[in-house]
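Work Package 4 report. The design task specified in the project plan requires that, given a folded chain encoded as structure tokens, an amino acid be chosen for each position. We show below one input record used in the internal validation round.
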């Protein structure tokens, strides 16, 4: 059947990256634009639920969502972008995708399987591994390492947990009070926290490894929870090479357009905006960007475009399924209140609802 005149007029928006920000941009625009999502995976894996999925695989059934389930009108290309010109995006599998507008939402580099089934199998394997061992080593004391320690401690209180962090305190990206509260909680759960030391996992021998100070640690399995590089290296030879700052982040204006480019936007961790990078922040970027793209595609004045301003910073770190530590603008607290806000469902139901899905059950 021939397309209607209205459909033929739709502009093409290419969204690169199907994570927190990219998923919302694509979902918000699929009814008003010809949207193409380029993502190395066929699914959206809700990141703040990934650690619990390792100790409770059933939550992965709700938090790993095939893109097609919430993007029925979107062309999905399961590949990585490798270049962008002023007319098209090139993918790793050799496709060239023309565009009117582009949104870059590639976040941090990650190694993930291509299909949902493979990802669910990974979570099941992690669960079986943790369940079968006595001692677990966690490398890294940022939010990922702390939350993983909390999840394992809650689900398997009999396991011996060792967390090694190279910095002087946990959760260094937020205040020292919140850091100490997390430390106190882990210590109370008998997690062995080692600070100011690093580990060279290349020298792991039979489960035995030495820290940078020479301390010997024996563990049955380990998980690396250190920072990942920004997913922008593919832009170094592209038309956006001069829009990257020294940290590899894209410089954006108040409308979230990339410096020097009227039709290319960026959202999430890849932006140079000075703020704590969190999923909820990437979602705010996505909503502003989607609104601005609708304004531009409708031919309205740029003066009507929405601006993005960093708001009050609020951070909640889960500590198991019932507790957490929260840093608000004027107060830092720990215990059941932050646990009630985040830890019970990890915002999975709310995230699914934002994408038009049943909050609790898989869509069939």
């Amino acid at each position: 059947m021939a397309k209607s005149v209205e459909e033929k007029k739709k502009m093409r928006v290419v969204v690169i990256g199907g994570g927190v920000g990219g998923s919302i941009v694509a979902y918000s625009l699929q009814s008003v634009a010809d949207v193409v999502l380029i993502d190395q995976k066929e699914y959206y894996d809700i990141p703040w639920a990934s650690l619990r999925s390792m100790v409770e695989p059933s939550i992965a059934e709700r938090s790993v969502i095939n893109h097609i389930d919430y993007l029925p009108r979107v062309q999905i290309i399961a590949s990585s972008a490798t270049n962008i010109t002023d007319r098209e995006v090139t993918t790793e599998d050799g496709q060239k995708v023309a565009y009117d507008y582009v949104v870059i939402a590639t976040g941090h580099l990650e190694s993930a399987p291509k299909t949902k089934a493979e990802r669910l199998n990974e979570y099941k394997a992690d669960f079986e591994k943790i369940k079968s061992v006595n001692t677990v080593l966690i490398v890294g004391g940022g939010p990922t390492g702390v939350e993983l320690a909390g999840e394992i401690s809650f689900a398997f209180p009999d396991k011996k947990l060792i967390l090694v962090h190279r910095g002087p305190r946990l959760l260094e990206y937020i205040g020292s009070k919140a850091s100490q509260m997390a430390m106190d909680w882990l210590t109370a759960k008998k997690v062995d926290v080692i600070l100011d030391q690093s580990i060279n996992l290349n020298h792991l021998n039979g489960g035995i490894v030495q820290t940078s100070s020479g301390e010997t640690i024996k563990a049955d399995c380990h998980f690396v929870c250190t920072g990942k590089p920004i997913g922008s290296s593919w832009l170094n030879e592209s038309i956006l090479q001069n829009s990257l700052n020294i940290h590899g982040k894209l410089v954006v204006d108040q409308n979230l357009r990339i410096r020097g480019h009227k039709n290319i936007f960026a959202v999430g961790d890849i932006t140079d905006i000075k703020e704590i990078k969190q999923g909820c922040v990437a979602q705010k970027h996505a909503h502003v960007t989607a609104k601005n793209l609708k304004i531009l595609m409708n031919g309205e004045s740029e003066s009507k475009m929405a601006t993005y301003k960093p708001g009050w910073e609020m951070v909640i770190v889960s500590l198991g399924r019932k507790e957490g530590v929260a840093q608000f603008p004027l107060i830092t607290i720990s215990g059941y209140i932050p646990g009630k806000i985040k830890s019970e469902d990890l915002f999975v139901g709310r995230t699914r609802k934002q994408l038009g899905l049943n909050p609790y059950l898989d869509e069939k």
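The CA atoms of residues 201 and 209 lie 7 Å apart. Validation will be extended to a larger panel in the next phase.
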